[in-house]
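Friendly challenge for the regulars: who can give me the structure tokens for this chain first? No prize, just bragging rights.
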Amino acid sequence: MNFSKRLLILSALPALVLIVAALAGVVALRATEARFADVFEKDQPLSQAVTEMYGHGLQTGQALRNILLDPANPTAYKNLDAALKAYEAAEKVATPLAAGTPAQVLLDKVAEARSRQQVARTHVLELAKADPAAAVAALNKEETPAWREMRAGLLEAGKLAQAGLQATRDRALAETHRAVVLGLAATLL
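First reply, four minutes later:
Bragging rights claimed.
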């Protein structure tokens, strides 16, 4: 092999390595971009929606108790309606985001408990003006246990959402580090 061919091969080899490393870096950065998109489009909104469901569930219970304390107070009824609507809005966000994740099973159980809670809440509201003592008893016997089940499911779903969020962040950072290492290795080579 003559000198010019050897020189061409020796010149092309580092360029080829650099091109391969650059392509690997681009692929790694695209994967990182996809991971961060998951964080911002799915994991973070799911975590936030579950947290909002929990908060609005607490507000619903507080409003219901305020109704029992003063059944003639229209503000308590407005607060109950607002909390219920806000819960439903957060649930509409969380449900599709949780699809196919472990949080979906928990949110399905929360929805079942919420159905029981709604029946109990209606019963409590019917009794609130007519028989306050029976309303308190129904609250303690029917509504509160349903809320406790919802609460447990929401807290666990929140933990899963946070864990998923952290795992996605960790994968994105690991992919970013790999891309940097590939780029540095190619540069040094």
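Residues 3-69 form the longest helix (67 residues). The chain is about 95% helix and 0% strand. Your move, everyone else.
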